[in-house]
Design goal:
Strand order of the largest sheet: 6-5-4-3-2-1-22-23
Largest sheet: 8 strands, mixed
Distance between the termini: 77 Å
Protein backbone atom coordinates (compact mmCIF):
# COMPACT_ATOMS: atom_id res chain seq x y z
CA UNK A 1 0.00 0.00 0.00
CA UNK A 2 1.98 2.96 -1.30
CA UNK A 3 1.37 6.68 -1.77
CA UNK A 4 3.46 8.37 -4.49
CA UNK A 5 3.69 12.06 -5.34
CA UNK A 6 3.73 13.25 -8.97
CA UNK A 7 2.23 16.74 -9.02
CA UNK A 8 1.76 19.98 -7.04
CA UNK A 9 4.82 19.18 -4.93
CA UNK A 10 6.44 22.42 -3.77
CA UNK A 11 4.24 24.15 -6.35
CA UNK A 12 0.61 25.23 -6.47
CA UNK A 13 -0.78 23.70 -9.66
CA UNK A 14 -0.79 20.34 -11.42
CA UNK A 15 -2.17 18.18 -8.58
CA UNK A 16 -1.58 14.44 -9.13
CA UNK A 17 -1.03 11.70 -6.54
CA UNK A 18 -0.80 7.93 -7.16
CA UNK A 19 -2.13 5.37 -4.69
CA UNK A 20 -1.28 1.67 -4.95
CA UNK A 21 -3.03 -1.08 -3.00
CA UNK A 22 -3.09 -4.87 -3.12
CA UNK A 23 0.23 -5.14 -4.97
CA UNK A 24 -0.16 -3.58 -8.38
CA UNK A 25 -3.61 -1.96 -8.33
CA UNK A 26 -3.56 1.79 -8.89
CA UNK A 27 -5.78 4.81 -8.51
CA UNK A 28 -4.98 8.46 -9.20
CA UNK A 29 -6.14 11.39 -7.06
CA UNK A 30 -6.58 14.37 -9.38
CA UNK A 31 -4.78 14.87 -12.68
CA UNK A 32 -4.28 18.59 -12.97
CA UNK A 33 -2.69 20.88 -15.51
CA UNK A 34 0.35 22.92 -14.52
CA UNK A 35 -0.38 26.64 -14.86
CA UNK A 36 2.15 29.45 -14.83
CA UNK A 37 5.86 29.14 -14.11
CA UNK A 38 7.29 26.32 -11.99
CA UNK A 39 10.84 26.10 -10.61
CA UNK A 40 11.02 22.31 -10.39
CA UNK A 41 10.53 19.35 -12.70
CA UNK A 42 7.56 17.04 -12.17
CA UNK A 43 8.38 13.33 -12.21
CA UNK A 44 6.44 11.20 -14.75
CA UNK A 45 3.99 8.53 -13.62
CA UNK A 46 5.74 5.15 -13.27
CA UNK A 47 2.71 3.24 -14.60
CA UNK A 48 0.91 3.31 -17.94
CA UNK A 49 -2.52 5.01 -17.99
CA UNK A 50 -4.25 1.72 -18.82
CA UNK A 51 -2.91 0.27 -15.53
CA UNK A 52 -4.79 2.92 -13.53
CA UNK A 53 -8.25 1.64 -12.58
CA UNK A 54 -9.78 4.68 -10.88
CA UNK A 55 -9.43 8.45 -10.58
CA UNK A 56 -10.71 10.34 -7.55
CA UNK A 57 -11.34 13.98 -8.49
CA UNK A 58 -11.51 16.51 -5.66
CA UNK A 59 -12.95 19.35 -7.75
CA UNK A 60 -13.29 20.77 -11.25
CA UNK A 61 -10.60 23.47 -11.38
CA UNK A 62 -8.22 22.84 -14.28
CA UNK A 63 -5.17 22.58 -12.03
CA UNK A 64 -6.84 19.45 -10.59
CA UNK A 65 -8.81 18.06 -13.56
CA UNK A 66 -7.16 19.53 -16.66
CA UNK A 67 -5.10 16.53 -17.79
CA UNK A 68 -7.86 13.89 -17.54
CA UNK A 69 -8.61 13.98 -21.31
CA UNK A 70 -4.92 13.31 -22.04
CA UNK A 71 -4.97 10.40 -19.58
CA UNK A 72 -7.93 8.96 -21.50
CA UNK A 73 -6.22 9.63 -24.84
CA UNK A 74 -3.20 7.69 -23.57
CA UNK A 75 -5.23 4.65 -22.58
CA UNK A 76 -7.08 5.16 -19.28
CA UNK A 77 -10.44 3.34 -19.39
CA UNK A 78 -11.38 3.21 -15.70
CA UNK A 79 -13.91 5.15 -13.61
CA UNK A 80 -13.62 8.77 -12.45
CA UNK A 81 -15.31 9.35 -9.09
CA UNK A 82 -16.46 12.89 -8.27
CA UNK A 83 -19.52 14.78 -7.04
CA UNK A 84 -22.35 15.52 -9.48
CA UNK A 85 -21.49 19.24 -9.44
CA UNK A 86 -17.83 18.54 -10.20
CA UNK A 87 -18.92 16.30 -13.07
CA UNK A 88 -21.23 19.01 -14.47
CA UNK A 89 -18.54 21.69 -14.22
CA UNK A 90 -15.91 19.42 -15.79
CA UNK A 91 -18.17 18.88 -18.80
CA UNK A 92 -17.90 22.58 -19.69
CA UNK A 93 -14.43 23.35 -18.31
CA UNK A 94 -12.62 20.47 -20.01
CA UNK A 95 -14.38 21.26 -23.30
CA UNK A 96 -13.24 24.87 -22.98
CA UNK A 97 -9.69 23.73 -22.20
CA UNK A 98 -9.67 21.43 -25.25
CA UNK A 99 -10.81 24.28 -27.48
CA UNK A 100 -7.91 26.38 -26.22
CA UNK A 101 -5.47 23.49 -26.80
CA UNK A 102 -6.71 23.06 -30.38
CA UNK A 103 -6.57 26.78 -31.19
CA UNK A 104 -3.10 27.18 -29.68
CA UNK A 105 -1.81 24.17 -31.63
CA UNK A 106 -3.33 25.43 -34.88
CA UNK A 107 -1.77 28.87 -34.38
CA UNK A 108 1.66 27.43 -33.60
CA UNK A 109 1.42 25.00 -36.53
CA UNK A 110 0.69 27.90 -38.88
CA UNK A 111 3.79 29.72 -37.63
CA UNK A 112 5.93 26.56 -37.82
CA UNK A 113 4.96 25.71 -41.39
CA UNK A 114 6.02 29.16 -42.54
CA UNK A 115 9.60 28.44 -41.45
CA UNK A 116 9.72 24.76 -42.38
CA UNK A 117 9.11 23.33 -38.89
CA UNK A 118 6.87 20.40 -37.92
CA UNK A 119 3.17 20.90 -37.11
CA UNK A 120 2.13 20.96 -33.42
CA UNK A 121 -0.41 18.55 -31.95
CA UNK A 122 -2.81 19.82 -29.25
CA UNK A 123 -2.35 18.44 -25.75
CA UNK A 124 -5.80 16.93 -26.22
CA UNK A 125 -8.92 17.55 -28.27
CA UNK A 126 -12.68 17.92 -27.88
CA UNK A 127 -12.96 14.32 -29.01
CA UNK A 128 -10.83 13.29 -26.03
CA UNK A 129 -13.16 15.22 -23.70
CA UNK A 130 -16.17 13.48 -25.23
CA UNK A 131 -14.52 10.13 -24.42
CA UNK A 132 -13.71 11.28 -20.88
CA UNK A 133 -17.11 12.42 -19.62
CA UNK A 134 -18.88 8.99 -19.82
CA UNK A 135 -16.22 7.63 -17.43
CA UNK A 136 -17.47 9.84 -14.59
CA UNK A 137 -19.56 8.43 -11.75
CA UNK A 138 -21.36 10.94 -9.53
CA UNK A 139 -20.99 10.54 -5.75
CA UNK A 140 -23.13 12.31 -3.11
CA UNK A 141 -21.57 13.90 -0.06
CA UNK A 142 -21.38 11.86 3.12
CA UNK A 143 -22.03 8.36 1.76
CA UNK A 144 -19.50 5.52 1.88
CA UNK A 145 -19.11 4.05 -1.60
CA UNK A 146 -17.73 0.54 -2.00
CA UNK A 147 -15.57 0.74 -5.11
CA UNK A 148 -13.65 -2.52 -5.19
CA UNK A 149 -12.22 -5.21 -2.97
CA UNK A 150 -10.28 -3.39 -0.27
CA UNK A 151 -11.32 0.09 -1.46
CA UNK A 152 -14.15 2.37 -0.26
CA UNK A 153 -14.59 6.14 -0.56
CA UNK A 154 -16.44 9.02 1.04
CA UNK A 155 -16.70 12.59 -0.30
CA UNK A 156 -17.04 15.53 2.14
CA UNK A 157 -17.74 19.18 1.25
CA UNK A 158 -14.41 21.06 1.17
CA UNK A 159 -16.08 24.48 0.80
CA UNK A 160 -13.71 25.66 -1.94
CA UNK A 161 -15.87 25.47 -5.07
CA UNK A 162 -19.29 24.12 -5.95
CA UNK A 163 -18.92 20.33 -5.62
CA UNK A 164 -15.40 20.48 -4.16
CA UNK A 165 -14.46 17.65 -1.84
CA UNK A 166 -12.12 16.15 0.64
CA UNK A 167 -11.92 12.42 -0.04
CA UNK A 168 -11.53 9.63 2.50
CA UNK A 169 -10.07 6.39 1.12
CA UNK A 170 -10.60 3.28 3.23
CA UNK A 171 -7.98 0.78 2.08
CA UNK A 172 -7.72 -2.82 3.27
CA UNK A 173 -4.65 -4.95 2.62
CA UNK A 174 -3.17 -7.91 4.50
CA UNK A 175 -6.03 -7.73 6.97
CA UNK A 176 -5.27 -4.11 7.94
CA UNK A 177 -7.49 -1.12 7.08
CA UNK A 178 -5.91 2.31 6.58
CA UNK A 179 -7.84 5.59 6.25
CA UNK A 180 -6.03 7.91 3.82
CA UNK A 181 -7.56 11.40 3.59
CA UNK A 182 -6.99 13.82 0.70
CA UNK A 183 -7.98 17.34 1.73
CA UNK A 184 -8.44 18.66 -1.79
CA UNK A 185 -8.45 22.47 -1.78
CA UNK A 186 -9.83 23.56 1.61
CA UNK A 187 -12.12 26.56 1.26
CA UNK A 188 -12.22 29.81 3.17
CA UNK A 189 -15.08 30.36 5.61
CA UNK A 190 -18.02 32.71 5.01
CA UNK A 191 -17.78 32.62 1.22
CA UNK A 192 -21.02 33.53 -0.54
CA UNK A 193 -23.20 30.88 -2.17
CA UNK A 194 -21.42 27.68 -0.99
CA UNK A 195 -21.03 26.01 2.41
CA UNK A 196 -18.06 26.30 4.74
CA UNK A 197 -15.61 23.36 4.65
CA UNK A 198 -16.60 20.28 6.67
CA UNK A 199 -13.75 18.35 8.32
CA UNK A 200 -13.45 14.57 8.33
CA UNK A 201 -13.83 12.61 11.57
CA UNK A 202 -10.75 10.36 11.53
CA UNK A 203 -7.60 9.61 9.55
CA UNK A 204 -4.46 7.51 9.68
CA UNK A 205 -2.75 9.69 7.08
CA UNK A 206 -3.63 13.09 5.59
CA UNK A 207 -2.42 14.80 2.42
CA UNK A 208 -3.25 18.49 2.91
CA UNK A 209 -2.95 21.44 0.54
CA UNK A 210 -0.90 24.53 1.45
CA UNK A 211 -1.73 27.29 -1.03
CA UNK A 212 -1.64 29.79 1.86
CA UNK A 213 0.27 27.59 4.28
CA UNK A 214 2.58 30.42 5.37
CA UNK A 215 0.08 33.26 5.22
CA UNK A 216 -2.83 34.71 7.13
CA UNK A 217 -5.64 36.48 5.30
CA UNK A 218 -6.25 40.07 6.29
CA UNK A 219 -8.77 40.50 9.08
CA UNK A 220 -12.17 39.28 7.92
CA UNK A 221 -13.97 42.07 6.13
CA UNK A 222 -16.98 42.51 3.91
CA UNK A 223 -15.67 42.84 0.33
CA UNK A 224 -18.76 44.71 -0.86
CA UNK A 225 -17.87 48.16 0.62
CA UNK A 226 -14.36 47.88 -0.85
CA UNK A 227 -15.84 46.97 -4.24
CA UNK A 228 -18.12 50.02 -4.02
CA UNK A 229 -15.08 52.24 -3.36
CA UNK A 230 -13.32 50.86 -6.44
CA UNK A 231 -16.41 51.47 -8.59
CA UNK A 232 -16.94 54.99 -7.27
CA UNK A 233 -13.29 55.98 -7.77
CA UNK A 234 -13.06 54.54 -11.28
CA UNK A 235 -16.43 55.81 -12.52
CA UNK A 236 -15.57 59.31 -11.26
CA UNK A 237 -12.58 59.25 -13.62
CA UNK A 238 -14.82 58.11 -16.47
CA UNK A 239 -13.09 54.74 -16.49
CA UNK A 240 -13.94 51.04 -16.68
CA UNK A 241 -13.26 48.38 -14.05
CA UNK A 242 -11.66 45.35 -15.70
CA UNK A 243 -11.84 42.19 -13.55
CA UNK A 244 -9.82 39.10 -14.50
CA UNK A 245 -11.83 36.34 -12.89
CA UNK A 246 -11.93 32.57 -12.76
CA UNK A 247 -14.98 31.60 -14.79
CA UNK A 248 -16.10 29.05 -12.22
CA UNK A 249 -16.55 30.04 -8.60
CA UNK A 250 -15.14 33.54 -8.27
CA UNK A 251 -17.26 34.97 -11.10
CA UNK A 252 -20.46 33.74 -9.45
CA UNK A 253 -19.34 35.32 -6.14
CA UNK A 254 -18.81 38.63 -7.93
CA UNK A 255 -22.29 38.48 -9.44
CA UNK A 256 -23.63 37.92 -5.93
CA UNK A 257 -21.73 41.03 -4.72
CA UNK A 258 -22.94 43.20 -7.60
CA UNK A 259 -26.53 42.10 -6.97
CA UNK A 260 -26.18 43.22 -3.34
CA UNK A 261 -24.76 46.59 -4.44
CA UNK A 262 -27.73 47.09 -6.78
CA UNK A 263 -30.37 45.84 -4.33
CA UNK A 264 -29.07 48.03 -1.48
CA UNK A 265 -28.45 51.05 -3.75
CA UNK A 266 -24.88 51.36 -2.47
CA UNK A 267 -23.83 53.44 -5.49
CA UNK A 268 -26.67 55.99 -5.69
CA UNK A 269 -24.78 58.37 -7.99
CA UNK A 270 -24.69 55.68 -10.69
CA UNK A 271 -27.36 53.06 -9.89
CA UNK A 272 -27.73 51.85 -13.48
CA UNK A 273 -24.09 50.92 -14.14
CA UNK A 274 -23.73 47.88 -16.35
CA UNK A 275 -21.73 44.72 -15.68
CA UNK A 276 -20.59 42.78 -18.76
CA UNK A 277 -19.89 39.10 -18.18
CA UNK A 278 -17.61 38.40 -21.14
CA UNK A 279 -17.03 34.68 -20.77
CA UNK A 280 -19.11 31.98 -22.46
CA UNK A 281 -17.60 29.50 -19.99
CA UNK A 282 -18.69 31.61 -17.01
CA UNK A 283 -22.18 31.89 -18.47
CA UNK A 284 -22.42 28.08 -18.67
CA UNK A 285 -20.94 27.66 -15.19
CA UNK A 286 -23.49 30.08 -13.77
CA UNK A 287 -26.23 27.82 -15.13
CA UNK A 288 -24.65 24.86 -13.28
CA UNK A 289 -24.68 26.88 -10.04
CA UNK A 290 -28.38 27.62 -10.47
CA UNK A 291 -29.25 23.96 -11.09
CA UNK A 292 -27.14 22.33 -8.36
CA UNK A 293 -28.38 20.36 -5.35
CA UNK A 294 -29.71 22.61 -2.60
CA UNK A 295 -27.39 20.87 -0.10
CA UNK A 296 -24.43 22.59 -1.82
CA UNK A 297 -25.70 26.10 -1.03
CA UNK A 298 -25.35 28.13 2.16
CA UNK A 299 -28.26 29.44 4.22
CA UNK A 300 -28.14 33.00 2.88
CA UNK A 301 -28.30 31.86 -0.73
CA UNK A 302 -31.12 29.42 0.03
CA UNK A 303 -33.08 32.22 1.72
CA UNK A 304 -32.81 34.38 -1.42
CA UNK A 305 -33.92 31.49 -3.64
CA UNK A 306 -36.81 30.63 -1.33
CA UNK A 307 -38.11 34.16 -1.92
CA UNK A 308 -38.18 33.43 -5.64
CA UNK A 309 -35.12 35.57 -6.38
CA UNK A 310 -32.03 34.72 -8.39
CA UNK A 311 -28.98 35.32 -6.14
CA UNK A 312 -26.61 35.98 -9.07
CA UNK A 313 -28.74 38.01 -11.47
CA UNK A 314 -29.64 41.71 -11.48
CA UNK A 315 -30.71 44.59 -13.71
CA UNK A 316 -27.73 45.80 -15.72
CA UNK A 317 -26.05 42.40 -16.10
CA UNK A 318 -25.15 41.78 -19.73
CA UNK A 319 -23.80 38.45 -20.93
CA UNK A 320 -21.43 38.46 -23.90
CA UNK A 321 -21.12 35.43 -26.15
CA UNK A 322 -19.56 36.28 -29.52
CA UNK A 323 -16.06 37.52 -30.23
CA UNK A 324 -17.51 40.50 -32.11
CA UNK A 325 -19.58 41.54 -29.07
CA UNK A 326 -16.51 41.20 -26.87
CA UNK A 327 -14.31 43.33 -29.11
CA UNK A 328 -17.01 45.98 -29.44
CA UNK A 329 -16.92 46.53 -25.66
CA UNK A 330 -13.64 48.39 -26.07
CA UNK A 331 -15.41 51.00 -28.20
CA UNK A 332 -18.02 51.53 -25.46
CA UNK A 333 -16.77 54.58 -23.53
CA UNK A 334 -19.42 54.43 -20.78
CA UNK A 335 -18.07 53.69 -17.28
CA UNK A 336 -18.81 50.01 -16.69
CA UNK A 337 -17.53 46.72 -15.34
CA UNK A 338 -16.09 43.96 -17.54
CA UNK A 339 -15.59 40.51 -16.02
CA UNK A 340 -13.60 38.11 -18.19
CA UNK A 341 -11.47 35.02 -17.79
CA UNK A 342 -8.94 33.64 -17.30
CA UNK A 343 -8.41 34.66 -13.69
CA UNK A 344 -4.60 34.64 -13.95
CA UNK A 345 -4.67 36.36 -17.38
CA UNK A 346 -2.96 33.39 -19.05
CA UNK A 347 -5.42 33.32 -21.95
CA UNK A 348 -8.99 34.04 -22.90
CA UNK A 349 -10.76 37.31 -23.53
CA UNK A 350 -9.26 39.09 -20.54
CA UNK A 351 -6.00 39.48 -22.48
CA UNK A 352 -7.84 41.38 -25.21
CA UNK A 353 -9.42 43.69 -22.61
CA UNK A 354 -6.13 44.27 -20.82
CA UNK A 355 -4.43 45.16 -24.09
CA UNK A 356 -7.05 47.80 -24.86
CA UNK A 357 -7.50 49.22 -21.35
CA UNK A 358 -4.38 48.85 -19.20
CA UNK A 359 -2.70 51.86 -20.86
CA UNK A 360 -5.53 54.21 -19.75
CA UNK A 361 -5.07 55.83 -16.32
CA UNK A 362 -8.85 56.26 -15.96
CA UNK A 363 -9.35 52.49 -15.75
CA UNK A 364 -8.85 50.01 -12.91
CA UNK A 365 -7.61 46.43 -13.22
CA UNK A 366 -9.12 44.68 -10.20
CA UNK A 367 -7.70 41.28 -9.26
CA UNK A 368 -10.00 39.04 -7.27
CA UNK A 369 -8.01 35.82 -6.84
CA UNK A 370 -4.67 34.13 -6.44
CA UNK A 371 -2.04 34.94 -9.09
CA UNK A 372 0.54 32.17 -9.49
CA UNK A 373 4.20 33.02 -10.04
CA UNK A 374 5.04 33.54 -13.70
CA UNK A 375 1.49 34.30 -14.84
CA UNK A 376 0.62 37.54 -16.64
CA UNK A 377 -1.71 38.40 -13.76
CA UNK A 378 1.09 38.11 -11.20
CA UNK A 379 3.45 40.18 -13.37
CA UNK A 380 0.90 43.00 -13.60
CA UNK A 381 -0.06 42.80 -9.92
CA UNK A 382 3.59 42.99 -8.87
CA UNK A 383 3.76 46.48 -10.37
CA UNK A 384 5.58 46.42 -13.70
CA UNK A 385 5.60 49.66 -15.66
CA UNK A 386 5.07 47.96 -19.02
CA UNK A 387 4.05 44.46 -20.04
CA UNK A 388 3.80 42.36 -23.18
CA UNK A 389 0.18 41.40 -23.95
CA UNK A 390 -0.74 39.46 -27.08
CA UNK A 391 2.70 40.15 -28.50
CA UNK A 392 2.71 43.91 -27.88
CA UNK A 393 4.54 45.86 -25.18
CA UNK A 394 2.08 48.19 -23.42
CA UNK A 395 2.53 50.77 -20.68
CA UNK A 396 0.68 50.03 -17.44
CA UNK A 397 -1.07 53.28 -16.52
CA UNK A 398 -4.33 51.91 -15.13
CA UNK A 399 -4.87 51.63 -11.39
CA UNK A 400 -3.99 48.11 -10.20
CA UNK A 401 -5.94 46.86 -7.18
CA UNK A 402 -6.90 43.72 -5.31
CA UNK A 403 -10.38 43.11 -3.92
CA UNK A 404 -9.92 42.66 -0.19
CA UNK A 405 -11.86 40.06 1.75
CA UNK A 406 -12.18 37.36 -0.91
CA UNK A 407 -10.25 34.12 -1.16
CA UNK A 408 -11.35 30.66 -2.15
CA UNK A 409 -8.56 29.07 -0.09
CA UNK A 410 -8.20 28.71 3.65
CA UNK A 411 -5.18 30.51 5.07
CA UNK A 412 -2.74 28.94 7.53
CA UNK A 413 -5.17 29.41 10.44
CA UNK A 414 -8.01 27.88 8.41
CA UNK A 415 -5.91 24.86 7.43
CA UNK A 416 -4.89 24.32 11.06
CA UNK A 417 -8.56 24.58 12.14
CA UNK A 418 -9.46 21.94 9.55
CA UNK A 419 -6.70 19.68 10.94
CA UNK A 420 -7.71 20.37 14.54
CA UNK A 421 -11.33 19.35 13.83
CA UNK A 422 -10.27 15.81 12.85
CA UNK A 423 -11.39 13.79 15.88
CA UNK A 424 -8.97 10.89 15.51
CA UNK A 425 -5.74 12.58 14.45
CA UNK A 426 -3.52 11.07 11.75
CA UNK A 427 -0.17 9.53 12.58
CA UNK A 428 1.51 11.38 9.71
CA UNK A 429 0.73 14.31 7.41
CA UNK A 430 1.97 15.04 3.89
CA UNK A 431 1.78 18.59 2.51
CA UNK A 432 1.37 19.56 -1.14
CA UNK A 433 -0.25 22.19 -3.40
CA UNK A 434 1.87 25.10 -2.19
CA UNK A 435 5.08 26.78 -3.25
CA UNK A 436 8.28 25.96 -1.39
CA UNK A 437 7.75 28.49 1.41
CA UNK A 438 4.09 27.68 1.99
CA UNK A 439 4.33 23.89 2.04
CA UNK A 440 7.44 23.82 4.23
CA UNK A 441 6.01 26.35 6.68
CA UNK A 442 2.70 24.52 7.03
CA UNK A 443 4.44 21.18 7.56
CA UNK A 444 6.53 22.68 10.38
CA UNK A 445 3.46 24.36 11.90
CA UNK A 446 1.45 21.11 11.93
CA UNK A 447 4.27 19.32 13.74
CA UNK A 448 4.57 22.21 16.20
CA UNK A 449 0.81 22.46 16.88
CA UNK A 450 -0.17 18.78 16.96
CA UNK A 451 3.05 16.86 17.49
CA UNK A 452 2.43 14.96 14.25
CA UNK A 453 5.26 14.22 11.79
CA UNK A 454 4.53 16.37 8.72
CA UNK A 455 6.58 16.58 5.53
CA UNK A 456 6.40 18.22 2.11
CA UNK A 457 7.68 15.54 -0.30
CA UNK A 458 9.29 16.31 -3.64
CA UNK A 459 7.87 14.96 -6.88
CA UNK A 460 8.75 11.29 -7.32
CA UNK A 461 8.73 10.43 -3.60
CA UNK A 462 7.00 7.24 -2.40
CA UNK A 463 5.69 6.27 1.08
CA UNK A 464 4.59 2.83 2.34
CA UNK A 465 1.33 3.31 4.25
CA UNK A 466 1.38 -0.17 5.82
CA UNK A 467 4.94 0.03 7.12
CA UNK A 468 4.75 3.76 7.88
CA UNK A 469 8.07 4.43 6.20
CA UNK A 470 9.52 6.15 3.17
CA UNK A 471 10.33 3.94 0.20
CA UNK A 472 11.97 6.76 -1.72
CA UNK A 473 12.62 10.38 -0.74
CA UNK A 474 13.10 12.12 -4.09
CA UNK A 475 15.28 15.20 -4.41
CA UNK A 476 14.27 18.41 -6.21
CA UNK A 477 15.20 18.78 -9.85
CA UNK A 478 15.35 22.43 -10.89
CA UNK A 479 14.11 23.40 -14.32
CA UNK A 480 16.64 24.86 -16.70
CA UNK A 481 16.05 28.56 -17.13
CA UNK A 482 15.49 29.84 -20.65
CA UNK A 483 17.67 32.71 -21.78
CA UNK A 484 15.55 35.21 -23.68
CA UNK A 485 17.00 37.91 -25.90
CA UNK A 486 15.77 41.42 -25.32
CA UNK A 487 13.85 42.99 -28.18
CA UNK A 488 13.15 46.73 -28.16
CA UNK A 489 9.50 47.68 -27.66
CA UNK A 490 7.47 49.47 -30.29
CA UNK A 491 6.45 53.10 -30.06
CA UNK A 492 3.54 53.28 -27.60
CA UNK A 493 1.67 56.00 -29.51
CA UNK A 494 1.79 53.83 -32.63
CA UNK A 495 0.52 50.81 -30.71
CA UNK A 496 -2.37 52.80 -29.25
CA UNK A 497 -3.25 54.13 -32.71
CA UNK A 498 -3.43 50.59 -34.08
CA UNK A 499 -5.45 49.38 -31.08
CA UNK A 500 -7.95 52.22 -31.50
CA UNK A 501 -8.29 51.50 -35.23
CA UNK A 502 -8.96 47.82 -34.49
CA UNK A 503 -11.62 48.77 -31.97
CA UNK A 504 -13.21 51.11 -34.54
CA UNK A 505 -13.34 48.26 -37.06
CA UNK A 506 -15.12 45.98 -34.57
CA UNK A 507 -17.56 48.77 -33.72
CA UNK A 508 -18.30 49.25 -37.42
CA UNK A 509 -18.99 45.51 -37.81
CA UNK A 510 -21.43 45.64 -34.89
CA UNK A 511 -23.61 48.20 -36.75
CA UNK A 512 -24.76 45.76 -39.44
CA UNK A 513 -28.42 45.93 -38.39
CA UNK A 514 -28.48 49.57 -37.30
CA UNK A 515 -30.16 52.40 -39.22
CA UNK A 516 -28.64 53.21 -42.63
CA UNK A 517 -28.48 56.89 -41.72
CA UNK A 518 -26.32 56.12 -38.67
CA UNK A 519 -23.92 54.07 -40.82
CA UNK A 520 -23.73 56.78 -43.50
CA UNK A 521 -23.00 59.43 -40.85
CA UNK A 522 -20.15 57.37 -39.38
CA UNK A 523 -18.76 56.58 -42.85
CA UNK A 524 -18.56 60.29 -43.70
CA UNK A 525 -16.75 61.08 -40.46
CA UNK A 526 -14.18 58.32 -40.98
CA UNK A 527 -13.71 59.20 -44.66
CA UNK A 528 -13.15 62.86 -43.78
CA UNK A 529 -10.62 61.88 -41.09
CA UNK A 530 -8.50 59.82 -43.49
CA UNK A 531 -9.28 62.01 -46.52
CA UNK A 532 -10.67 59.24 -48.74
Amino acid sequence: MKLSFFGANHQVTGSRTLLEWNEGRFLLVDDGMIQGHTDYETAPLPVAPEQIEYVLLTHAHIDHSGMLPLLVHQGFQGTIYATQETMDLCAIMLADSATIQEKDAAYQTKKNLRVGKEPVEPVYTLEDVEKTMPLFRACPYGQIIDVDEGLSLRFTDAGHLLGSSSVECFLTEQGKTVTMVFSGDVGNTDQPIINDPIPVSAADYVLIESTYGARLHEQAMDPIPYLVQVLRRTFARGGTVIIPSFAVGRTQELLYFFREIKMQNLLPERPDFEVYLDSPLANKATAVFLQCEMACLDEETLAIMNEGENPIWFDGLRTIETVEESQALNWNREPKVIIASSGMCEGGRICHHLKHNIWNAANTILFVGYQANGTLGRIIYDGVKSVKILGEEIHVNAEIDLLKGVSGHADQAGLLRWMDAIGQKPGRVFVNHGDDENCQTLAAKITEEFGIPAEAPWSGSCFDLLRNEWVDMAQPVEKKKEVKQHTPSKNQDYLQLVATAEALLQYAKSLEHHANSEMRHLTKKIAKLIEV
